[in-house]
Structures are given as structure tokens and as C-alpha cells.
From TrEMBL:
It comes from the Eukaryota. One of its GO terms (cellular component) is nucleus. It comes from Steinernema hermaphroditum. GO terms for biological process: coenzyme A biosynthetic process. InterPro entries: ATPase_NBD (IPR043129), Type_II_PanK (IPR004567). This is Pantothenate kinase. PANTHER family: FUMBLE (PTHR12280:SF30), PANTOTHENATE KINASE (PTHR12280).
Amino acid sequence: MAGISNDDIQNFLSNLERRASSSVTPFSEFPMPWFGLDIGGTLTKLVYFEPTDDKGNFETEEELLSDRMIQRYLTTNKAYGDSGVRDEHLELQNVTINNRIGTIHFIRFPTNQMPTFITLVKEKEFTLMSSTVCATGGGAIKYAKDAESELNMQLLKSDELESLIKGIELIASVNNEECYYYDYPLDNERCRKVSWKWSKGCCSSECTDHSQATDDGLQYPYIVVNIGSGVSVMAVYGQHDFKRISGSSIGGGFFQGLCCLLCGCDSFEEAVMLASHGNNRNIDKLVKDIYGRAYDNVGLPEDTVAARYVSVHTRMYCV
């Protein structure tokens, strides 16, 4: 999230605390270490805040050693077991959260490995110092009892769609260049990045007047399409006013399963790698395959996909 400063993150966290109910424990009161979990249907994403300011407040030598062991294990490895990965390119350095300075690390692994993850946490005694972890996603509900019984740890659950909207609010409020798309993505010569101006509802090449921009940088209502294992479509009418209006079972889980069947890949990463080298024109039928050229009467370029997977039965390969 290029362009987001440490002050921006701190201010956003402070705002969330002010909005929270008085019955909810403020984030600042959670003991170190700080973790967050998003347990999705296909992938689990873990975020870890590594303090670098050396202001540890530990009651015992055992707590100090445990904290250092967690830091060493999570920050010196890029891979965990057969399927856990730390995305170094995503880490945020020198971030200030609740007067602590540190680095935010991002780790992911398949959700079907959650039992293995729970066993690892138990063996490494990662819950020795912290009995509460913030969590979202469907797995936060599914694995709540396992976390409590096996780890004596409570998952402080947040609704995943509400968390998504709050994340969009953060991005829109601190970086109006973060929302963008690529014009002419298949044309190497004409391809260009175009920023979408949240506050005006227009792209950067067409929008120059920002006199009516809203304070939070958002123009309501807007539509959010969240692609996970499945797909949810939400209409957002305000900061705390949204509803799910549609969805689809064809999402990331469908993509991974289809790649497994067609190409024999074993993981989401392998599927993405194969897709980056593949050529959909080998199996899809384009407008030019039907008309011999573009369908100008309705504005369809010749390279528009008219039908998916039409040529699979005539091909011996799918890349």
C-alpha cells in the first residue's frame, strides 16, 4: 500500500478504537505479541507485528525468551513447513501502532492446514504470553473451539465483510492513487495504469476538479466485489451502511480446483504460476474467431473473449 504513512495507520487504528463499543477490549490493551488472522475458505492469512523499538515490557525472563523465539521463528523463515509462505515484498517497516514501532509481516498457508498450524502454535508455545488473537473470515468461527480447547486462546472475531469495508475506508482516506485499473491490458504499447478518483467517481485521465471531494475520499454508493474462495457482491451506502446483494460460487476455490483437474497443479501458487505462462487464446473462442474481425456494431474488439474453454476438446494441452 504505497503512499500510506505511519501516522495514517496510527490515526486509522485510533478511529477504530473510538468507534468500538465500550464492552470490547481496546486493541492497545492486548499483550504482545500482536497477531491477526484471516481464515478464509482456501487460504489463511496471518499478520504479525514485530516490535523493533526494544521497549518490551515483560514480567518474567520466560516471557522475554518466548517473545524473542516467536520473532526469530517468524522473521528468519520465508517458508513454514510444506505450504506456509511469508511474503517479504508486502512487509511494512517502521510502522507505529500504539506508541510501538515495528514491522508488519504477512504470512499465508492453505486453510486445510489449520490443524497443523494449531499443533505448531502449541508446540512452540506461541500462546504463552497472549491469550487473545484478532481473527476474521469464516474459519474464525469454525476453528474457535479448537483454538480455545487446544491452545487456551480466544479468537476475537470480526465480521469479514465489515473488516473489508473498513479496509477500503483506510485506503481511500490516505491514498487516492491506490484504486486503479489497466487500460488496454493486452496491448504492450498502449497498456497504461489509470487511477480511479474515489471522491469524484471518475478516472484520472478524465477528472481534474476535486472541489467537491468528500472528507473520507469516498463517493457513495459504490459496489464492492470481493473475490475469495467464492464471490460476494456488496452495495455500500455509507461508512457503516452496506449489504450483500449478490454473489457467486465461482471464485478462487473454483479456479484452484479447475487448475488441479486440467493442469495437475497441487497448490494455489502453482496455479497462478501456470496461469502467468499460459495463453487463454489456445482454449477460448474470441470475437474474431466468430466474425473474422471485431464486432463493431456493438463495440466488441476482436480480442474479446466470446466463450470460455470452447477449444479444450480439440487441444492436447491447456497452456
